[in-house]
Amino acid sequence: MVAQAAAYSAPVGLSVAARRTPARDVAVCMLQMWAYVMAYKHPHDDPESQRASTHFSYPIVADRALGLGELPTVRLQRALARVGPEGAEWRVLDKVLVWAHWSWFAVPHGSLAYLLARHPRRFPRAAALMYAVFDVGACFYWFLPTAPPWYAAAEEMPGGDGVPAVRRMMVEYGELFWRDGWGPLYSVLGGNPLAAMPSLHFATSLMAALLLAQAGPLPGALGFGYMVTLGFALVYLGEHYVVDLLGGAALTAAVWRVGARAGPIAVRVRCAVARLEAMARE
Description:
- By secondary structure, the chain is mainly α.
- Strand 1 and strand 2 form a beta hairpin.
- Helix 7 packs antiparallel against helix 8.
- The chain is globular.
- The protein starts with a helix and ends with a helix.
């Protein structure tokens, strides 16, 4: 907890110590994401303890209800994925969906970079909302560790009356495409396989779409188009249950609603930081 407190104090410290410029804004966002990554990965420091407290059954039960008796991931993989005599057959659709999943690492931050460059007055609020989604979502990973469909199937965990085979297609294609580079790449981008509920992939993509829509119809259309594509990919590729996506959407809706009501508080906080910044330069 001391490390977490120190990590989350870093963005505030930089805001006080340095005059505001676009470069400082970028640096503050990078420090914020460093703190989030620490919070995201830390529960998996003790995998056995985390696994003992992991929830397996409720997302399976919920998705079977949503899928009218069968997991939507299983339905989609059975209908769309192809496995031939020599193994998986990768069609254009599969590759597009895998790359949509991989590109998520750039989308939330790329959306904020666009706003910083083209609509700088919108940037402070947008960054606060986006990183609030990240941070609140990380809290759930501490207190509600939940297995995604690929993990529940691979580990043959209880709770779903027998979890049917679910392929983790993103990893299968990654091993094929990146070859020897896949292991090091995945070790950097992974870190907590039980960070599933809510889906921050979907939550932050929805937030990006909402923020881009306020900047203009074309950015908004691109944002929502990506969000829909990613949501489909997450379920089809075996990365998330549908209920994980619904949880992510609920998280974003809550942050958006609270953010709309927290305007006066945000102004006071910005003023307080500005006063501290002025004092630091005296």
